[in-house]
Amino acid sequence: MFPFKIALQTMKEYRKIALIVTLLFMGIVAMYSGMYPAFKDYMIEMMESGFAEGFSFFRGAEDMGSYIGFLNIELYQIFWILILGILVGFISASLISKEIEGKTIDLFMSNPVSRKQIVFEKYLGLIPMILIINIATLVTIYGITLAINEEINPVYLVMTHAASIPYFLAIMSIGLLVSVIIDEKMKASIIMISIVVGMFIFESISLMVPDYESMGYISLTHYYNPYGILKAGEVDGAGIVVLIVISIICLILAMLYFERRDIPIS
């Protein structure tokens, strides 16, 4: 079996999903970015009237009247951090569980590869999907921004998307860990969706209620702030390190657990 065959198979398996999600996000970006001129005065009015205080569970809500603030609220905080996070979690949680449930794991283990390699290559196989969605979304945002004569720092935009990669890798690694523990594909995916949504809620509560600020530390979203990067190029270096460490730890745990667990062979 040649090196990274499983990773390549995983890439091919999810290429249609990657294409669909990429086109979906390009469409969403084009729609929301293109809508800003029509909503600009209304958003500024909302901000000046203090209505933005009702969105305090989002970072950068106080700047929702500006183009950067609008993108942050309408795109990054909802569709990027939460919706795409849910999709990535859903897919990654089924990587191993669907093979066990469908009895196709036998085919992988019949090849001269270790169980650790199976898990690791499955993980690698999803990374291109994240990169493709990231690049396509970035290019679309910048293109629409130029088309509507708004301003955005291209360097900050690239930094925003680059900094999101560790965030999605962390979600993937947690999903993969769930996938090797839970044998049922749908059950594993639902559990992972609950984890992603739960972390989003914890971070929102930490932003709204000062007494519960510490709740944010258990959420991955706490360590990725697209508004700070888009607005001022402020990258949370420590947060990126935390996300990378989480990714490594969960990936290693998934590999070790799958190596030692009993799998019924049909």
Please supply descriptive tags for the structure shown above:
266 residues, mainly alpha, 10 helices, globular
Describe the structure.
By secondary structure, the protein is mostly helical. The protein has one domain. It has helices at residues 5-13, 15-48, 67-92, 97-101, 105-109, 115-147, 154-181, 185-208, 226-232, 237-260. Helix 2 (15-48) packs across helix 6, helix 7 crosses helix 8 and helix 7 (154-181) packs antiparallel against helix 9. It is globular.
How many distinct folded domains? Answer: 1
Oligomerization category of the chains in this entry: single chain
How widely separated are the two ends? 22 Å
Our estimate of the beta-strand percent is under 5%
Residue share in helix: over 70%
SSE run:
HHHHHHHHHH
Largest sheet: none
How many individual β-strands?
0
Question: With helices defined by DSSP (H or I, 4 residues minimum), what is the helix count?
Answer: 10
SSE-based structural type: mainly alpha
**Residue ranges: pLDDT <50 for 5 or more in a row?**
none
Rg, Cα atoms, Å = 20 Å
Mean model confidence by pLDDT = 87
**What is the overall silhouette?**
globular
Write the layout of secondary structure elements.
Elements: H1 5-13, H2 15-48, H3 67-92, H4 97-101, H5 105-109, H6 115-147, H7 154-181, H8 185-208, H9 226-232, H10 237-260
Helix pairs in contact: 1-6, 2-3, 2-6, 3-7, 3-8, 3-9, 6-7, 6-10, 7-8, 7-9, 7-10
